[in-house]
Design a protein that fits this description.
- By secondary structure, this protein is mainly alpha-helical.
- It has helices at 3-21, 25-30, 37-54, 57-64, 69-72, 74-93, 98-106, 109-119.
- The radius of gyration is 18 Å and the shape is flat.
Amino acid sequence: MNKSIIYLSFLLFFGKSGFKVTNNARDYFVAGNSLGLASSIFSFCATWFSAASMQGVTGTVYAYGISTVLYSIVPWLLGAVLLMVMSDKMREYDIITLPEFFYYRYDSRFLQALGREQYL
């Protein structure tokens, strides 16, 4: 049997089982707030490393040297620290995204729009 068909079968199985337990956007984006801090950090790290490898950070380090770390690895560490600091506040306000936090915390549509633009 072709390996692609086996892989596709696994994807369809897990996709369907995940679809059954997802009821709203909160379930989809933040797993219904059921994940702990460690799971959230591991997910963040996996996403960041995947994005970094897709953008070719390894080749950039090879081409330009260790100075590449300043704009590739250091922001990752700062993001992980920010995640630890902001996660409690975001749960306290019962929000999903950082632009929502700006709106509820500072009551400012401008800061919310500015935060949205940072995502884009």
